[in-house]
Amino acid sequence: MPRYALKIEYDGKPFAGWQRQADQPSVQGAIEAALARLEPREHTIAAAGRTDAGVHATAQVATFDLEKDWDAFRLSEALNFHLKPAPVAILKAAKVADDFHARFSAVERQYLFRLVVRRAPMTHEAGQVWRVRNPLDLHAMREGAAHLVGLHDFTTFRSSICQAKSPVKTIDEITIEERPIPHGQEFRFFLRARSFLHNQVRSIVGTLEKVGSGAWAPDQVKDALEACDRAACGPVCPPQGLYLCCVGYPQDPFTD
C-alpha cells in the first residue's frame, strides 16, 4: 500500500484538538472522514504533533497508507473538496517511503505563539491570538527566555498529565519579536526543539508574560526551572495564540 504525507493548515477553534474523539470534532477525525470518501473504509492517520483544543497549525504533517496509487496533487485537491466546510486545508500531498512516519521521522518542531497587547478586544483575529491589556517589556522577556534554552529538566513547565517518559528536553531556540499593530503591539514567540512536552510552550509563554508585565523578575524563570515543581510555573496561557508552524525532517518530503 503506498504511503502519503500531507502538509496541513487548520484553525483549531472548532476542534477538541488534533486527536480523534468519540463525541467531539477533531482535526484527525475530519481528515479521516474525507479519506473515507475516497476509499470507503476506516482510516488511521499519524501526525507530527497532537495539538490541543483551540491550537492552530500552519504546517502540521500527517502520514497514512492508501490502497490506490494516487497522484499527489489530485489527492490534495480531492481531500480539500471533501473537507469543506471545515477550516482544514491540505497545502500539499506527497508520496513517501514506506518507513517514513510523520511523528517518528521528525527531527525538529517549531511553534509560534502570538500575544497581542491592546486595550480593545480583538475582532478580526479573535481566537487567533492571546490578548492582554498591560504593556510588556521585550528585553525582560528575552532575558527570562534565555534561562530555558538548552538541555534541562522541564518538570516545572509540563502538564501534570503529560505522558512523556522523561521531563528532560532540549530547547534549541526561543526568539521573541515585537511589532506594532493598530492600537497595540504584537509579540511573537518562536520556539524550536526536536520535541516538546504537553503544555510546555503554553507554560513557557504564560511565565514569560509574567516577566514582561513586571510581576516576575527574569531570574525567577531560572528559579522556577530549577525547582522542578509544576507549582513553581507561571500561569498556562490560553491555546488560541499557539500555532504548529514547522516540522523538520532529514529530507523534506514536500520538496519537488
- What percentage of residues falls in helices of 4 or more residues? 10-25%
Distance between the termini: 22 Å
Strand content: 25-35%
Summed over residues and divided by their number, the pLDDT gives a mean of 96
- Beta-strand segment tally: 10
| Rg over CA atoms | 19 Å
Q: What's the helix-strand series?
A: EHEEHEEEHEEEHHE
Low-confidence stretches: none
Shape: globular
Give a short account of the largest sheet.
10 strands, mixed
Structural class given helices, strands, pairing?
alpha+beta
Number of helical stretches of at least 4 residues: 5
Give a quick rundown of the structure:
Helix content is 22%, strand content 30%.
Description:
Its EC number is 5.4.99.12. GO terms for molecular function: tRNA pseudouridine(38-40) synthase activity. Homodimer. Helix content is 22%, strand content 30%. The chain contains five helices and ten strands, in the order βαββαβββαβββααβ. It has helices at residues 27-38, 72-83, 138-146, 200-213, 219-227; strands at 3-10, 46-47, 56-65, 88-96, 108-117, 130-132, 150-153, 168-181, 184-193, 242-248. Strands 1, 2, 3, 4, 5, 6, 7, 8, 9 and 10 form a ten-stranded mixed β-sheet that branches. Helix 1 (27-38) crosses helix 2 and helix 3 packs across helix 4. The longest helix has 14 residues, at 200-213. It is globular.
